[in-house]
Amino acid sequence: QGDILIEKGDKVKQLHNFEMFNYTQDSEGNLKIVSSRSEEAITSALVFVMSDDQLQGAMLTGGSTADMSAFTKLLTDNNYIVSDVNIATDALGDTYDIALLLAPQVDLSEDALRKLGDFLYNGGKYGKMLCYTADAAQPPMPGINALLAEWGISAGDGVVFETAENRTYQGQPFYPVVDYTNEKYRDALKDASMPVLMPISLPLQQLFEVKGSVTA
Question: Average per-residue pLDDT in the chain?
């Protein structure tokens, strides 16, 4: 009762009533509806039943990575199939479209780095993606940094900070508000004026644009 079923052929998506709203807690700990997210939920369900293929993501574990259950839910809500893959022991097959390495606290072994490199190379066909996030408190990661450098990216030391107070969250310099610089992705957003917060971020640098068959 109260659920919505969206179906096409044999594909069915069930939307629970509680998935239609955003909630907060009041001072007494009771849940309170603050806004509707029904358009987002129903659109996602429509895409699910109408799509022949779903993108598959490998959530890499095994390096004391961060618990990003909220991010995983965001991906599954947007029709990704997300599987946990232990980079130390499991195969990283070519069925995955994207590998996610989120804030590891331990550098990867040579074998694990080779798996990631082979995944991105994809037998010379490329077309795969690695989503990597760094933790400002993590120890040196020479292996991961070497892999990133092969693909034209350098993750620096320290933390990005903002000197203009009006570009920060409550005046905290390590909580800067950032701008979109990629017009292609910015223009695809419903509302590109929404501020984006990038708290405690490491500096990134593009090492090259083209090197051999690799474009960064």
Answer: 89
